């Protein structure tokens, strides 16, 4: 088994007075795709931001490639992990190609110049995300789904060993959700951690899951492991407070909420 790329040790994450994650010991390896699952407000985004190095943990540590995240400088960090947030705020009228090229900036030479290879990689990424035809368009004019696919293209262009995505399929229509899943499933040389609301998408494109479970009193527990161990109907019912039925259609397993 290869060494963990991302590891947390006794990780604690808080938001205000709330403890969202407590004592999390967890490891992510290259080739694995983890779904972060749990109800609204359980802490998926806050945990992802802590893993990305965008907020300090309240306790414990995050390690990337065996090094404490806090000791990795910003520029190097940008070559090690890509962060694809849930919301995109575009302040300037950059073209779509310029936005994706910005993801190549960590690899720029001393003068900050990008080369023809960077442009080729950016264009390839746009093509893989079905937005090459928008390359010259002002990023502020895109639809929600188009903007999301441009963000995925930027993530591909950044070419980092670790990819962290917050609800990457939000805003996408069903064919593009499936295409995004297929794309992420091809990233065999990278590790992927993504928050998702759709358990069935997780079943389709992930190998592992980290599932929020309520704890009667005190901090919640996050259950980590291979998908088929974690995504059990009983666990999902505890997490979401709603009974789930497992069905098999054309050889694929799906979960549907039971009628109340
Ligand atoms: N500074 C803060 N002070 C108090 N509470 C906060 C603060 N920041 C975030 N929270 C709360 O922390 C909780 C976790 O938020 P987070 O965005 O991580 O949840 P999430 O699981 O990603 O939710 P969703 O599925 O709705 O996107 C929320 O209840 C949020 O209101």
From TrEMBL:
The keyword Flavoprotein does not apply. InterPro entries: AAA+_ATPase, ABC_transporter-like_ATP-bd, ABC_transporter-like_CS, P-loop_NTPase. Signal peptide: none annotated. GO terms for molecular function: ATP binding; ATP hydrolysis activity. Keywords: ATP-binding, Cell membrane, Membrane, Nucleotide-binding, Translocase, Transport. The keyword Chaperone does not apply. Part of the ABC transporter complex HmuTUV involved in hemin import. Responsible for energy coupling to the transport system. This is Cobalamin ABC transporter ATP-binding protein. It comes from Caldimonas thermodepolymerans.
């Amino acid at each position: 088994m290869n060494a963990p790329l991302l590891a947390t040790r006794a990780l604690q994450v808080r938001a205000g007075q709330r403890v969202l994650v407590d004592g999390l010991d967890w490891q992510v390896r290259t080739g694995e795709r983890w779904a972060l699952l749990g109800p609204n407000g359980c802490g998926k985004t806050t945990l992802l931001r802590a893993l990305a190095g965008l907020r300090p943990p309240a306790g414990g540590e995050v390690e990337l490639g065996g090094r404490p995240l806090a000791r990795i400088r910003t520029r190097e960090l940008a070559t090690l992990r890509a962060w694809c947030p849930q919301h995109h705020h575009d302040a300037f009228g950059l073209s779509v190609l310029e936005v994706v090229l910005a993801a190549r900036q960590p690899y720029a030479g001393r003068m900050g110049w990008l080369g023809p290879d960077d442009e080729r990689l950016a264009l390839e990424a746009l093509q893989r995300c079905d937005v090459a035809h928008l390359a010259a368009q002002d990023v502020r004019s895109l639809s929600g789904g188009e903007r999301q696919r441009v963000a995925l293209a930027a993530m591909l262009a950044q070419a980092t060993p670790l990819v962290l995505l917050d609800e990457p399929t939000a805003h996408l229509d069903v064919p593009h959700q499936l295409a995004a899943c297929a794309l992420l499933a091809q990233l065999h040389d990278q590790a992927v951690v993504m928050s998702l609301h759709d358990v069935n998408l997780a079943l389709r494109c992930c190998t592992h899951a980290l599932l929020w479970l309520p704890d009667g009193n005190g901090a919640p527990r996050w259950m980590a492991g291979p998908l088929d161990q974690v995504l059990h109907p009983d666990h999902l019912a505890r997490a979401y407070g709603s009974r789930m039925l497992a069905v098999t259609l054309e050889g694929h397993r799906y979960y549907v909420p039971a009628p109340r």
